C-alpha cells in the first residue's frame, strides 16, 4: 500500500523506496550516497514489476500480468451503463475498504433480498420484504444475468471477476407530474486487497431526486441558507448532521 511521493514517483510504504513509471528504482533512503550502496538504485534487482494499466470512465484498471501487454490492449474494460453519461441522471461514486473477504462481498452485492432488513429505514423497510422470484436470463464463464418481475423490477448482472451491476426500475405516480419510471443503477467494482479485506468502488446513478445527490452542485449549502431561518431547532440539527454526512461522501468521490 504505497503512495505517490513528492517527486511523482511510486513510494513503498514499508521502506520508502521510490520508483518511476517504468518500474525503475529512483531512491533508496537507506543506501549510502556513495559506493556500492549508491549503485544499488540502478540495479535491475531493485526495480518494481510493471503491469499494463488503463484509465476508463475515471477508473484505473490493472492487468496483473507483466507479460500480458498485447492481451490487455485487446481486451475492453467493463463499462458503466450509458445512463451515467445521460444528463437526466445524477451520479455519485464512493470507495470503501471493507474488512471481509471478496467472496462474502460478492455474495452481498448479488443478493437483493437482504436490503429490506440490513438497510432498514435507509433504502429498505422490514415490512416491505416479499418473495423475489428471479429468472436466469444468461450465464457462462463471463458471469450471469437475471431479473425478477413486478414492481420494482430488479436486473442483476455479474461480470467476472469483480463487476456487479444492479438496475432497479420503479413505476410510481406523483400528485403533480403523474406516472413516472424511476431508474437506479448501482454498479460496484470489488477488488480483493488482502486476505479478509476487499476494496469496493460503487458508482450509482438515478433519474429522480437529483438535488439530493452529493457532489459539485453543493445543493445542501443552498438548502441550508434558504431554510435556516424557517426550520424548527430540532429539525435544523438533523439537517446539519445530514449536511456533514454529505460532505463525507463527497470526499470519497
Structure description:
The chain is an alpha+beta fold and 253 residues long. The chain folds into 3 domains: 3-50, no CATH class; 51-80, no CATH class; 84-216, Naphthalene 1,2-dioxygenase Alpha Subunit, Chain A, domain 1, CATH 3.90.380.10. 20% of the residues lie in helices and 34% in strands. It is built from 6 helices and 13 strands. The strands form 3 sheets. A 7-stranded antiparallel sheet has the order 7-13-12-11-10-9-8. The two termini are 20 Å apart. The model is unreliable at 218-253 (pLDDT under 50). GO terms for molecular function: 2 iron, 2 sulfur cluster binding; chlorophyllide a oxygenase activity; metal ion binding; pheophorbide a oxygenase activity. Residues 1-62 form the Rieske domain. This is Rieske domain-containing protein.
